[in-house]
Amino acid sequence: ATATTAASAAAAGHEVLGSIPGLASIAEPTQAQLRMLGLASALPFVGFGFLDNFLMILFGEFIDNTLCVFFSFSTMAAAAIGNTISDAAGIFSGG
């Protein structure tokens, strides 16, 4: 629809903002190509989510068993500190 609108505007002598020469000759992506793009785009987010939650549970449990006992922190404080550590690790992992 956009290429048709751009072509009709160009045929009428109007300048089309954002038009690219030869854009009408570019084929629409196939369903298989769109699925591959979706998978390639989603996979890093799944990996980041797994890493983030795994480290949050691991560090939260470790902090709950060590610092919370020594400093009398609550379990919620251990979860918050574990979440902060896992978020920092997630940032450095590229997410």
Can you describe this structure?
- The protein has four helices and no strands.
- It is an all-alpha fold.
- The chain is rod-shaped, with a radius of gyration of 25 Å.
- The mean pLDDT is 81.
Topology record:
Layout: H1 2-11, H2 31-65, H3 67-71, H4 75-92
Helix pairs in contact: 2-4
Structure at a glance:
By secondary structure, the protein is mostly helical. The protein contains four helices and no strands.
Decide which structural class fits the backbone. mainly alpha
Order of helices and strands: HHHH
Query: Care to count the β-strands?
Result: 0
Distance between the termini: 36 Å
Number of helices: 4
In the predicted model, the low-confidence regions spanning at least 5 consecutive residues are none
Instruction: Tell me the Rg in angstroms.
Output: 25 Å
What brief labels describe this structure?
4 helices, mainly alpha, 95 residues, rod-shaped, 72% helix
